[in-house]
Amino acid sequence: MRRVNRLRHKVAFAKCDPVSAIIGSAVVGAGTSLYSGAKARKQANKAQASNEAIARQQAQRAEEQFNRLNQKQPGVEALYARNAKVNSGGVGSTFLTGATGAKPLLGS
Predict the structure, then answer these.
(1) How many independent structural domains does the chain possess?
(2) Could you tell me if 102 and 108 are in contact, meaning their C-beta atoms sit under 8 angstroms apart?
(3) Is residue 23 part of a domain?
(4) 69 in a domain, yes or no?
(5) pLDDT 10s digit of each residue in the chain, 108 long?
């Protein structure tokens, strides 16, 4: 008896009306389309992230090359003039002691 019921069940699914077949194939087609679209979107996002990383690296290299070619040079003349002006004060004018010399310690 069970075997007969199984056969009837299989036959029932094998026979379906054309409208159900069309709707079923449309649902399967839409599902496949959604899957393909999601897969393509993931690949596009991955490619965009890769391109952005490459662009950042190229910008970094370009900036490094620009900085290497346009290095700032010290103003040697200005440094020499400033040192000559500071040294013209004599021996007593240093940053540590000042022009009057060292102050005596308190309590000594």
Answers:
(1) 1
(2) no
(3) yes
(4) no
(5) 555 555 555 544 556 667 676 777 777 777 788 788 888 899 999 999 999 999 999 999 999 999 988 888 878 888 888 877 776 665 555 566 656 666 666 665
